[in-house]
Amino acid sequence: MYAIAALTAMLTAFYMFRLLFITFGGKFRGTAEQEHHLHESPATMTIPLIVLAILSVIGGWVGIPEVLMKGGDKIAEFLSPVVPIKTGETIEHTTEYGLMAVSTVLAIIGILFAWYRFRNYQRTEATGLGKVLENKWYVDELYDKIIVKPLRWLGGFLNSFIEKNVIDGIVNGVGRAVNYSSRQLRLLQSGQVGNYVLLMVLCMLVVFALQFFVRK
Question: What is the gyration radius of the CA atoms in the chain, in angstroms?
Fold first, then answer.
């Protein structure tokens, strides 16, 4: 657990000072027009940052280890109703100093490496693992190839074939069938009484045939 926390402290110091050196170190990487319009952030941005900086310092003093100040660890006392304070298990002051020294040295190493690597940063084409990290592990490209493009192809297929040939074919086919049937049935309405009588007789014969030969 301590090794993970110490490594995290070193990485935090590294990437925060990397951010600092890339932003404020080296030559300006924008255009001359952009450099001409550089200005300080408005108060709505700077004041919250100042407040956070002050609170971060206060937070460090509130949680100062017991070895440095008796009764200084107010955070443990504040959290004691939820996280009970274990008693009877103590470590030597020398061990505690050693642990703090290791984490501090690791943080300084992270800061110095960030200064060495990015103090005169100029953007270059990344290679190897740097290129993979710069492209966010190619997650967007994989998502586009595995999810987006197949879904677009499926949508195009459904639109060009299923929608136009199947769905529209069924709807339009029903309309054409009704239209054709109505044109054929319209021929029966000739206005000639003889044809009507003939159809009536034929229908009666069909009904009689069904009654005598089909009905069980």
Answer: 42
Q: How many residues can be counted in the chain? A: 216
6 Cβ contact list (under 8 Å, min separation 6): 102, 103, 106
Domain that holds residue 162: 142-214
| Same structural domain, 118 and 194 | no
Q: Is the domain of 100 the same as that of 146?
A: no
User: Is residue 112 predicted with pLDDT exceeding 60?
Assistant: yes
Mean pLDDT for the chain overall = 86
Query: In the prediction, which pLDDT does 141 show?
Result: 93
Same domain, 104 and 156: no
In a domain, 128, yes or no: no
Asked if 16 and 115 touch (Cβ cutoff 8 Å), the reply is no
3-state SS class at 174? helix
